[in-house]
Design a protein that fits this description.
The complex is a heterodimer of chains A (394) and B (337). Chain A has 394 residues and is an alpha+beta fold. Chain A has 11 helices and 8 strands. Chain A has a domain of 223 residues: MetI-like fold (Orthogonal Bundle), CATH 1.10.3720. In chain B, a hairpin with a 5-residue loop joins strand 2 and strand 3. Classes of the chains: A alpha+beta (394), B alpha/beta (337). The interface between A and B is large, with 48 and 48 residues.
């Protein structure tokens, strides 16, 4: 007996439903990737165990047994490998930070110089960019290192500057401050001064937008930043003494030493990256339509004011994304320190520690994670800054 | 759908592969040559000459191993390795044997998954300074800058020595031995430290070799020898007994010149060594004339030593600790029988 069937259901059977299919295939792909990853890790661990190679992260507590030529945190031969990692990381951050700072300033200057109306300045800037962009960084680094090394005298014939700075081929020895109790008032005063200067600047800008009256916020801010710590110092009697370097036997003892490897690395990184940043800056400035320049001239602004107040703020939209790439390049290029004995994380951790413990897999993974996190932080910050600089359309 | 099935097949194929674990001996025999890890250029131990041929006592050991396993000492390929990558290259299987003036220590023998097959050079660490500094002993080096190669026992011994003597120093650490020497020559540091044999070898590369002197103190034991991987007993035996065969040959007076005649000798030790009697070769898994091939094509230990690091060479090193035990040194071959 035929039974009356209703019209086919609105929802198709499970396997033909496009949404279900999509989810199913995505889950399948995810499972395959997870299985692949699990297989790789398992294979590595099994092979390491089979050959009797030590694995695991316990080595980070073992005593290091070697010394490092430059370290911003206290370090001795009895410190652990974990501490070696921190020292290397801080050295990398230091050279990257200072390199980024100088590269940006130099890059902006050269980029603007390339667009100068003065023919000679423009050509010199162009020559700088072309030469430095096209020579490999490693060769430039060797050039700076050996140019710095060989021209400087040995410690016994150091160049003396101001009676307490000594320049020789072991580095620049300068007096280091010794903090006595009660010194903490001065940095606190400095912090308060900076915050106060920012508040004053904000208040002055609001007042200018409301009433049109100008205020010397720059000079007042500068005065606060210098004056408050000075006052704090006078009240506490300047609890600061200096540890001056003295020539004892081979080298200078006491004070701080700026090793030539550090100087060579910073100079090479900054000048090389500045050439790339200069081109980014030039493209950003050229991207702003010429109508803006003409309009601001018509309003009576001078060339330098036009550049500073009208052109660069608009050019920053185009400059910042490639600038992020250049900062990341500089941070990763700092690993070339391994070629000239600067103790950054690659030389000290992925070099000496890897050699002593033989645990190549763990150490390289940690080093890669370090660079990855550092790069993500830099690009995250630059993206936030980019958002801030974006033009607000009315 | 086609793409999906092919991906599934690929995934299954990958999941089914297992790590193949043939012994190194079988690998070498099927490859037809020995892959030998050597240094990047240390005169006397492993150094390419003008035509690119590798020479040195470490190189000779690799060639002797090739003579043992393959019957032909020329079937060796060399991989120059820096101090940083030498162990990773051996662990990963990139080289079959590491003959790179490597010091035998506890950590390397255990945690790195490696086995040392013997000592082909007993050495110690020393210091080199400029003569015009007027130093007479290493104890006067407080506060000096020291150029050293990264990740070697040299670095650790240096720290230990200065710490034990209450002295301070500034390390300048480079990756390649050439860079260390160049920095010392440029005056970046006051002292250059490495094994005594290395000091003698590298002094030749300096601008004015006679302006430098080697201080008398030897601050550590550095037994240098060939290294192979854990878990490869047969290969370890082959390398070990190759070295012992070279020493035994020198002890018995068998040289590359007289080895043909020595085959007919009445001395039972010589007959066993050269394969006329006994089946040492079979137990090792090689042909009976393995030791004969070694001495004929490479020479015995003394010949190799004199050729590359002996008193008549540029390095000018005496046998010293490396003399045979019968001459008061430390080189002692286990009986080849």
């Amino acid at each position: 007996m035929a039974v009356e069937q209703l019209a086919p259901a609105a929802r198709p059977p499970l396997f033909y439903d496009p949404r279900v299919r999509a989810i199913f295939y995505q889950l399948l792909a995810l499972t395959l990737v997870a299985l692949g990853g699990y297989y790789l890790v398992n294979n590595t661990l099994a092979n390491l165990a089979r050959q009797g190679i030590a694995s695991g992260f316990g080595f980070l507590d073992t005593t290091a047994g070697f010394s490092i030529s430059m370290s911003l945190i206290p370090y001795s031969e009895e410190s652990s490998y974990g501490r070696v990692f921190l020292v290397g990381l801080i050295n990398t951050l230091l050279v990257s930070g200072i390199g980024v700072f100088f590269a940006t300033i130099l890059g902006f200057l050269i980029g603007i110089a390339r667009l100068s109306r003065n023919w000679l300045i423009a050509k010199i800037a162009a020559a700088y960019i072309e030469i430095l962009r096209n020579i490999p960084l490693l060769l430039q680094l060797f050039f700076w290192y050996f140019a710095v090394l060989r021209t400087l005298p040995s410690p016994r014939d150091s160049v003396q500057i101001f009676d307490s700075f000594f320049l020789n081929n072991r580095g620049l020895s300068s007096p280091s401050p010794l903090f006595e109790p009660g010194f903490s008032a001065i940095p606190i005063a400095l912090a308060i001064g900076i915050i106060a200067a920012i508040v004053v600047a904000r208040w002055a800008r609001k007042r200018q937008e409301a009433t049109g009256e100008q205020f010397h916020s720059f000079w007042v801010g500068l005065g606060i930043i210098i004056g408050l710590p000075l006052l704090a110092g006078i009240f506490t009697g300047f609890p600061l003494s200096w540890d001056t370097p003295e020539l004892v036997g081979f080298n200078f003892v006491g004070g701080m030493v700026l090793i030539p490897e550090f100087v060579a690395l910073v100079v090479a990184l900054s000048t090389y990256t500045a050439a790339f940043i200069a081109e980014n800056v030039r493209s950003g400035i050229l991207a702003v339509s010429h109508g803006q320049t003409e309009a601001s001239f018509a309003l009576g602004l001078r060339r330098s004011q036009t550049l500073r107040l009208v052109i660069i703020p608009q050019a920053l939209r185009v400059i910042i994304p490639p600038l992020t790439s250049q900062f990341l390049n500089l941070t990763k290029n700092s690993s070339l320190a391994a070629a000239i004995a600067y103790p950054d994380i690659v030389l000290v951790f992925a070099g000496t520690v890897l050699m002593q413990t033989g645990q190549a897999v763990e150490i390289i993974v940690i080093t890669m994670l370090c660079y990855l996190i550092l790069s993500l932080l830099i690009s995250g910050f630059m993206n936030w800054y980019n958002q801030k600089m974006a033009l607000v359309e009315r | 759908m086609k793409l999906f099935t092919s991906l599934l097949m690929a995934g299954a194929a990958v999941a089914m592969t297992t790590a193949a674990s043939a012994g190194t001996m079988d690998d070498v025999k099927s490859k037809g040559f020995v892959q030998c890890g050597v240094s990047q250029g240390l005169p006397g131990f492993s150094n390419p000459d003008q035509s690119g041929n590798w020479t040195g006592i470490d190189v000779d050991l690799c060639r002797a191993v090739a003579a043992t396993v393959l019957g032909d000492a020329s079937k060796v390929k060399f991989t120059p390795l820096s101090a940083k990558e030498r162990f990773t290259a051996l662990q990963s299987g990139e080289v079959d044997i590491l003959s790179r003036n490597t010091t035998w220590t506890l950590v390397r023998d255990t945690a790195l998954g490696l086995n040392f097959a013997g000592v082909n050079y007993y050495d110690g660490q020393g210091f080199m300074v400029r003569k015009d500094l007027g130093m007479k002993s290493a104890k006067e080096l407080n506060g000096a800058s020291v150029c050293v190669n990264i990740g070697t026992t040299t670095e650790l011994n240096l720290s230990d020595y200065f710490r034990a003597n209450g002295m301070k120093f500034n390390p300048v650490v480079f990756e390649k031995a050439d860079e260390v020497v160049a920095a010392y020559d440029a005056g970046r540091c006051d002292v250059y430290t490495t094994d005594q044999s290395g000091l003698a070898a590298q002094r030749e590369k300096l601008k004015e070799p006679d302006a430098h002197m080697i201080l008398p103190e030897i601050i550590s034991k550095e037994p240098l020898g060939p290294v192979v991987r854990h878990g490869d007993d047969q290969w370890l035996d082959v390398v070990k007994w190759t070295l012992y065969a070279m020493l035994e040959a020198e002890e018995l007076g068998v040289t590359s010149e007289n080895v043909e005649k020595m085959k007919e000798s009445e001395n039972p030790n010589i007959r066993r060594l050269l394969g006329t009697e006994g089946d040492g070769g079979k137990s090792l898994g090689v042909s009976d004339d393995w030791a004969f091939n070694i001495v004929k094509q490479v020479g015995n230990y003394g010949e190799s030593f004199d050729r590359y690091v002996g008193p008549k060479t540029a390095l000018g090193l005496e046998r010293g600790l490396n003399a045979l035990w019968t001459d008061g040194g430390l080189q002692y071959a286990m009986p080849v029988r």
